Amino acid sequence: MRPDEFDRLVSAACARIPGRFRRRLKNIAIVVEAEPAPAQLARGRVPRGGTLLGLYEGRPLTARSVFEPFAMPDRITIFQGPHERLATSPEHLARLVEETVWHEVAHYFGLNEAQVRAAEHKRRGRARR
After folding, report:
1. At what angle do helices 90-108 and 3-15 cross, to 10 degrees?
2. pTM value?
3. What one-character DSSP code corresponds to residue 61?
4. Can you spell out the DSSP letters for 104-124?
């Protein structure tokens, strides 16, 4: 897939974030990279041989104070290559991208990995009904 096509998948996934959450996304950059760099794999605590679909880098909202000075934007990176290798169809790719965007946004809102996984499980259960 061409990078601009993948960018459109990420943009569409961002647009599907409910407004009540999207309105609270402040000072955050959502970017696409082809592959995770070794340093990103390390920051994501990915075991050898593993990969990342996305990575949130920043200070979650729950850890911030109104008294803090200006900060550089937080960053969510979505990695194109790992998504394409995991996807079994164009529809599956779009769904994986959407799930990854949701996952990283949840970290921005302060959920840890276990909480994010539980929320994803609950969200998938509602989607099947």
Report:
1. 60
2. 0.84
3. G
4. HHHHHTT--HHHHHHHHHHHH
What is the CA angle 21-13-7, rounded to 5?
A: 130
Distance between CA atoms of residues 75 and 30, nearest Å:
6
**% of the chain beyond a pLDDT of 70:** 86
Helix (H, G, I), strand (E, B) or coil at 56: strand
Give the span between the Cα atoms of 60 and 123, in whole angstroms: 21
Cα-to-chain-centroid distance, residue 101:
3
The Cα 108–Cα 63 span in angstroms is: 10
State the burial class of residue 94 (Cβ atoms within 10 Å of its Cβ: 0-12, 13-18, 19+): middle
Domains belonging to the chain, first-starting first, are: 3-128 (3.30.2010.20)
Alpha helices in the chain (DSSP H): 3-15, 19-22, 38-43, 80-86, 90-108, 113-128
Q: How many CA atoms lie within 13 A of 12 on its CB side?
A: 13
Instruction: Note the pLDDT of residue 4.
Output: 96
Cβ atoms of 3 and 32 within 8 Å: the answer is yes
Say whether 30 sits in a helix, a strand or coil. Answer: strand
